[in-house]
Amino acid sequence: MFGFRYGSWDPELLKKLSHFKQLLDLFNFLLLKSNGDPERAMEMMRQLQQRGYLDESVDLDAFQKQLNDREIVSTELGKMQLTDKGVQGLRQSSLERIFQNLQSGGQGAHMTPYGGGNTNEALPERRDFQFGDDIEAIDFNASMWNAVRREGNTDVPLEERDLVVHDSEFATSCATVLLLDISHSMILYGEDRFTPAKQVALALTELIMTRYRKDTLDIVLFGDDARPVPIKDLPFTAVGPYHTNTKAGLQLARKLLERRKNPNKQIFMITDGKPTVIQIPGQGTYRNTFGLDEMIVNRTLDEAVVCRRKGIVITTFMVAQDPYLEQFIAELTEKNRGRAFFSSADQVGDFVLVDFLRNRKRRGR
Q1: 234 and 338 co-located in one domain
Q2: Nearest residue to 258 (alpha-carbon basis) of 303, 299, 332, 312
Q3: Please, where are the H alpha helices in the chain?
Q4: What does the pLDDT look like over 288-327, one tens digit per residue?
C-alpha cells in the first residue's frame, strides 16, 4: 500500500535549500554573462564576495561541490564544464526570471476559434455526442454512467444518446525563428545588450519545449553573415567583431521557415543597429558603416517584402533608440506588414514573451 511518511519539520533544511536556490540563480545569470563558462562564473562570484556584494559567510567551495553533486556541472581533467542538465536549468532560470517580472493577466493558452492546425485541445467541459465527433473525444466513464442512470443497472449496452464527449478548442501550430544580432555594437557604449537577448532566446526555447510542443523554434545569429545555432549551444554563444548583415539574417530565417510545415510562421528579430553589410552575388561583400547606405537598406527591405509574400511576419525588437534607426525599422515593418517594439535591454524579455503569448491566440487567420 502506498502512502507518505512524515517526519519532524526541519527549518534549517528549508533554509539551506532556499539559500542554494538563490546562489544558483546568481550562478545562472553569471553563466549568461560568461557565455556558459562555469569556471568564469564561479570566479565572478568570488570577486563579488571579495567586494562585499556577497556575504562573506557564504561557502562558495561548498556551493561548487553541490553543483557537481547535482550534476549541474562536471569536472573533467581539472576543468569545470556545464552539463546538459545545467543547460536545461539555465533555460528554466531564464524563463522564470522573465516571467517573474510580468504582471499577472489573461495570457492563457494559445486558443483560437479557427482551425489553424491539425490539433485541438480538450476542455474539462462535456457535451452530447454529435455525428462526426472524434471517437477519441468520447468520455466513456460519463457515457456508461448515463446508461446506468437510464436503465437502473450496469448490464446495459451503450446507445448513441448516452454518449458524451469532451468539448475542445482548436489549437494552432507556429514556427518561430529568433534572430539575434551579434554585431560588436551589442556590447559597446557601456551596455551589454546581448546577454538579455540570449536570455530571451533561452526562455523562449524553454517555453516552447515545455508548453507548445507542436511549435518549432530556430535560433539564428547574424553579424557579417548569418548562421543557425543548435539550442544546446546557445548558452555558449558570444558577440564578435562583426558588422550587421540584417539581410542575411532575414534570408536564412525565411529559408528555415519555408522548410517547416507549421501553418503559421514568424520571425522575432532582436537588434540594436542599422544594417551595414550585404553580400552581392558575384561581387562579394559590400560594407558601409556610415549612416544608412541606400543599397544596403534597399536590399534588406527587399527581403522583408519576400518574407511578407511567403506569409512570414517579422516582429522587430529594437534595444536602441535613435531617430534614424527607428525610421528604418518603421519602413521595414511597413514593407513586411509586421510589428516593431522599442525597448531597453532589460525589458526586451518582457516584450518578446508577452508578444509571443498574445499572438499564439491570434493564429489561424
Answers
A1: yes
A2: 312
A3: 11-33, 38-50, 60-69, 84-99, 140-151, 194-211, 246-259, 294-309, 323-336, 348-360
A4: 988 889 999 999 999 999 999 999 999 998 887 777 788 8
Q: Both 51 and 129 in a single domain?
A: no
User: Which residue has cell 524553454?
Assistant: 206
pLDDT digits (tens, 9 = 90+) for 75-124: 988 899 999 999 999 999 998 888 776 644 433 343 333 333 344 555 55
Residue 180, domain member (yes or no): yes
End-to-end Cα separation, the chain, in angstroms: 52
Average pLDDT, integer, range 11-36: 81
Could you tell me the pLDDT band of residue 57, with boundaries at 50, 70 and 90?
A: confident
Indicate whether 263 pLDDT > 60.
yes
d(CA 266, CA 314): 6
pTM of the predicted protein model: 0.74
Assigned C-alpha cell, 350: 518582457
Q: Are residues 78 and 36 in the same domain?
A: yes
Question: In this model, does residue 2 exceed pLDDT 60?
Answer: no
Residue 29 makes CB contacts below 8 A (sequence gap 6+) with 93, 97
Q: Which of 240, 244, 249 is nearest to 177 (CA)?
A: 249
Residue appearing with cell numbers 534570408 = 251
For residue 134, give its domain range.
124-168
Contact 170, 117 (CB under 8 A): yes
| 70/91 Cα distance (integer angstroms) | 17
Shared domain check, 180 and 164: no
